[in-house]
Amino acid sequence: QVQLQESGPGLVKPSQTLSLTCTVSGASLSSTSYYWNWIRQPAGKQLEWIGRIYSSGSTDFNPSLRSRVTISVDMSKNHLSLRLKSVTAADTAVYYCARGVSGWYYFDFWGQGTLVFVSS
Amino acid sequence: QSALTQPASVSGSPGQSITISCTGTSGDIGTYDYVSWYQQHPGKAPKLMIYDVTNRPSGVSHRFSGSKSGSTASLTISGLQAEDEADYYCNSYTISSTHVFGGGTRLTVL
Predict the structure, then answer these.
(1) What are the phi and psi torsion angles at B82 (to 5°)?
(2) Which residues pair with A34 in a beta bridge?
(3) Residues of B in Cβ contact (< 8 Å) with A61
(4) How would DSSP label each residue in B50-96?
(5) How many CA atoms lie within 13 A of A33 on its CB side?
(6) Of A4, A32, A59, A90, nearest to B98 (Cα)?
(7) For residue B48, which residues of chain A lie inside 8 Å, CB to CB?
(8) Across A34-54, average pLDDT
(9) How far is CA A9 from the centre of its chain?
């Protein structure tokens, strides 16, 4: 069974960099059949797609976040990472990682999400 | 990119059918049949209900169905049950090789 688990600091100070990790089990990040995504959701608000990475290392990002986001994979640990720099209170949200199906473009497995507060 | 447009809320009585619309543009729903729908209960992660406009993943009730016309996709839930009460989000792939979500619809089962 595919499982994804997000982890990282629950509190980040304004202007600093948010860093999260998603550990994947039951699937390999090196598979070309899938791509790996970060998605977030502020409390009481809608889902927002942040970006994705393929096993090749190719990435795509939400235009509104592109200048601040880095997504990477560590094949040896089978996990993907998210870095969001220069955070503000508006970046406070539950952050999810999710698996996307290549060529069909939907998210079939999601992590449980991790809440990140941006506050001094 | 602008979010897809969904009604903020819909409601129905048990046993009834409801439809949730999701309107995009020629840059997303109007071009691709890569529309998916997700159900989210409070405090939980979203769950895939429909993919590629009309397809149901294994394990999802046949009461859930999807369709599309032009730049608008729809999710229909028939035979409403109390457990269907949740938030529903549509998602589309875009011509810019990105994904975009809808604003979400709160379904209330009366």
Answers:
(1) -55, -35
(2) A101
(3) 98
(4) EBTTTBPPTTS-TTEEEEEETTEEEEEE-S--GGG-EEEEEEEE-TT
(5) 4
(6) A59
(7) 106-108
(8) 97
(9) 14
**What tokens appear for B72 in the block?**
């608008």
Residues of B with a Cβ under 8 Å from any A Cβ are: 1, 3, 32, 34, 36, 38, 44-48, 51-52, 57, 89, 91, 93, 96-104
State pLDDT tens for residues A79-112. 999 999 999 999 999 999 999 999 899 999 999 9
Quick one: which of B17, B29, B34, B33 has its CA closest to B76?
B17
CA separation for the pair B106, B100 (Å, rounded): 18
Residue B99 is which amino acid?
A: H
Half-sphere exposure of A79 (CA within 13 A, CB side): 13
Q: What six digits make up the tokens of A94? A: 């539950």
Which residues, in sequence order, are bridge partners of residue B102? Answer: B4
CA distance B75 to B90: 9
Q: Which two tokens stand for residue B67?
A: 């369709």
Tokens 């993943």 label which residue?
B57
